[in-house]
Amino acid sequence: MAGLFVSIEGIDGTGKSTQVKLLCDFLTRQGIDFVYTREPGGTRLGEEIRAILLNPQNQEMSALTEMLLYAASRAQLVKETIVPALRAGKIVICDRYVDSSIVYQGVGLGIGKDVVKAVNRVATGDLWPDLTLLFAFKKSQEGRVKRHGGGNQERMPDRIEARNEEFHRRVEAAYRQLADQYRKRIVVLDAEQRREDISNEVCSLVLSKYNSIRDM
Can you give the pLDDT at residue 91? Predict the structure, then answer.
């Protein structure tokens, strides 16, 4: 397709949201047409699925149900938003994508990476990002402290965030394994760097990839 598909990954608390906003501001200043979306959600149906998935009251949800709901939201997002934008030559910035399901449900919940990949190949038409930016901490424990370490905005953790420490350690380790496996697609960014330094690296990576696709 003519556009560039960029996914943003990482555990909660790594500054993903801040860096996505800075990237969007940069692309706006450059006059580059882009679409920002998120998972789960990004469409009317997807947002309804998101509310179900993240509701702390839905503790009875099985691991398989969770994985399939994420895939269902993703299927709608790909058809309704991502593919049309890519065909129009735009940059698509997606906050989480299939990699999240691989690590959170495939590894974290023990469903299995291959099962998650197979389901999502159907859900997405085997559409994968051109570039994945993975925000990561150097130490797992530091990541958990920063995720729930206060700040000015206090809120109750959602159903996924509230899971135990061991679950989140499995997720972090699985992200690192994915980065090693898909080095051509996944770029790991040190979330402990200065915000401005991370932003400069993110913008440079996306612009370089975008220009390389336009020159093909």
Answer: 98
Residue 75 one-letter amino acid: A
Cα 131 from chain centroid (whole Å)? 11
Between the CA of residue 55 and those of 42, 52, 106, 161, 210, what are the distances in Å?
17, 5, 20, 11, 37
Cβ(67)–Cβ(116) under 8 Å? yes
- Long-range Cβ contact pairs of 28-32 (< 8 A, separation 24 or more): 30/207, 32/91, 32/210
Q: Indicate the number of domains in the chain.
A: 1
Could you identify the residue written with the tokens 């995720």? 147
Q: What is the CA radius of gyration of the chain?
A: 17
CATH number at residue 42: 3.40.50.300
DSSP code, position 102: I
CA distance to 8, 61, 191, per residue, from 187 (Å)? 10, 33, 12
Phi-psi region of 48 (alpha: psi -120 to 50; beta: other; left: phi over 0): alpha
How much of the chain, in percent, has pLDDT values that exceed 70? 93
Residue 40 domain boundaries: 4-211
Domain assignment present for 216: no
SS3 78: helix
Q: What's the pLDDT tens digit per position in 16-28?
A: 999 999 999 999 9
Mapped onto helix, strand or coil, the DSSP state of residue 133 is strand
What is the pLDDT at residue 142?
46
